[in-house]
Amino acid sequence: MGTKKLTRRQAITAASAGTLGAMINWSFRPFTIVKNDQDKLALLGGNKVHGGTWPEWPVWDVTAEKNITEMLRSGKWWRGNGDHVADFEKKYAELMGAKRCLATASGTTALITSLKSFGVDAGDEVLVSPYTFIASYNVIFMNKALPVFIDSDPETFLIDPSKIESRITDRTVAILPVHIYGLPVDMDRVNTVARKHNLKVVEDACQAWLAEYRGKKTGTLGDAGCFSFQNSKNLPAGEGGAIISNNESFMDRCYSIHNCGRPFGSVARTSDYPISGSNFRMQQIQALILISQMNRIQKDADIRLANALYLDAKLKEIPGIIPCKLADGAERSAYHLYPFRYISKEFNNAPKEKFVRALNAEGIPCSSGYGPQNKDGLIEETLNSKGYKRLFSESRLRQWREENVLPGNDKLCSEAVTFYQSILLGSRSDMEDIVRAIAKICENRASLNG
Ligand SMILES: Cc1ncc(COP(=O)(O)O)c(C=O)c1O
Q1: Which domains are delineated in the chain?
Q2: At 404, is the secondary structure helix, strand, or coil?
């Protein structure tokens, strides 16, 4: 029997009757009725669906060992007296299809450097995605500018391009769209607004290595793209970051900013600093780890993609589970996390946190994504600071607060559930366990909220 396409109503009816698994011909045993302890939720004392382990991360690559030992013995530990950082920059630019790459100490410093290099300054405003890691807007504060959050589209988990233009003021200088979880933003629409209003576009691609949009890699779609290589990332080095761009003068300035203001190409001069900068340099050891990790990045990305597509196809058949939709023009996600939405009313109104706990108890590690960070305490603290009160008028800050209402993002935060990227490096039978566990919870939803 082939897979039957169920309407939403049929699916709900089938699920209630306990026949959903049978109707859609899953390759695993459908959970029909709760007959014994095996079918009882693990959260309530039943057996867990997945008793095995999951792939660990990061994975140490032996090709790094010889080169790191050699570098250690040479005493050439920093970019000032070794070639590995420059070598990594060349390789990463090639991999991404960009003219230039600058390696940095972290994704955060890549973003700070890019904004500063484009001239983002005290009193400016930058439009930014709210569904993201805190660094995406902290870097705007660090440049003494105002982050203006644009609502999210809960279906794509991304900035809603239709909401950008209305938030532009005469102080707006840049847009910082975030390809969160590796999901490409609809960059044509972002770039169109940016060009119309003469704004720079800095892509936060800190979770989006090898994601693709209309045939190009994320990070090459705006004026500059920033990446993170922190330990959890799909391309890890403990810490690390990079900026890529085709804009030569911008990249020269980035080099200076990340290297104490020294001119592009010079490493250790002790006077004659033409512009202000700091020390955001990558170390040699980070570059060597990254070069070795690059041996596996494409293969890993392909495995994650195949498993994610499998999950998309299976999970969308379970009532109340909505896999994330790719934005228009997006061709592949990097799946730093695999996201889906949980609709509690289809699960006997069990709160998301209960579902997350139930799924974890079944042996499937998952988490509940980002919170509504546009309401975080640090924002009010900053807006109330002496400096921000000098930089922005009372009426501008009042308006900012009135407009900082993001219903799409609130909905997304309340519904999102995620699997970490290394879960997607598991086997097909691991993926089947994920689907079985969610189907089991769906079947047992009456006891979930009992
Ligand atoms: C979306 C996003 N932006 C920025 C960063 C900052 O990168 P880093 O931790 O390397 O400073 C991260 C890191 O987790 C991130 O996920």
Answers
A1: 8-57+297-370+412-448 (3.90.1150.10), 63-295 (3.40.640.10)
A2: coil
Q: What is the whole-number distance in angstroms between the Cα of residue 111 and the centre of ligand 1?
A: 9
pTM here is 0.92
Binned average pLDDT, 10 residues per bin, the chain of 450 residues = 35 37 38 52 96 95 92 96 97 98 98 98 98 98 98 98 98 98 98 98 98 98 98 98 98 96 82 88 98 97 98 98 98 98 97 98 98 95 97 98 98 98 98 98 91
Contact (Cβ atoms closer than 8 angstroms) between residue 164 and residue 148 = no
Determine whether the shortest distance from the Cβ of 176 to ligand 1 is under 6 A. no
Contact 11, 317 (CB under 8 A): yes
Q: Is any atom of ligand 1 closer than 6 Å to the C-beta of 173?
A: no
Q: In terms of Cα–Cα distance, which of 210, 152, 203, 211 is closest to 174?
A: 203
Cα→Cα distances 95→102, 136, 219, 441, Å: 14, 24, 11, 42
Amino acid making up residue 167 = R
**pLDDT value of position 272:** 76
In 99-182, which ranges are E strands? 100-104, 125-128, 146-149, 152-153, 158-159, 172-176
CA distance 248 to 245: 8
| Alpha-carbon 197 to chain mean position | 27
| 351 preceded by a cis bond (ω within 30 of 0) | no
Beta carbon of 204 within 6 Å of any ligand 1 atom: yes
Residue 39 confidence (pLDDT) = 83
Cβ of 241 below 6 Å from ligand 1: yes
